[in-house]
Amino acid sequence: MKCPKCAYVGFEESDRCRHCGYDFSLMAPAEAAASPEPLRAADMPRHASYREPSRATIDADLNVEAAAPLVDLPLAAAAPTSLPAGASAAPVPLPPSLFADPQPPPARTPLAVRRTAERPRSRATPAVVRRPRPVLLESSTADAATEAEPPPEAVVAAPPVARLLSVVVDVVLLSGIDAAVVYLTAQIASVPMGQVLTLPLVPLAAFVIGLNVAYLAVFTANGGQTLGKMATGLRVESTDGALTFGGAVVRVAAAIAGGLIAGVGFLPALFRADRRAVHDQIAHTRVVKVSA
Question: What is the DSSP string of 69-101?
Answer without folding.
Answer: PP-PPPSSPPPPS---TTPPPPPPPPPPPTTSP
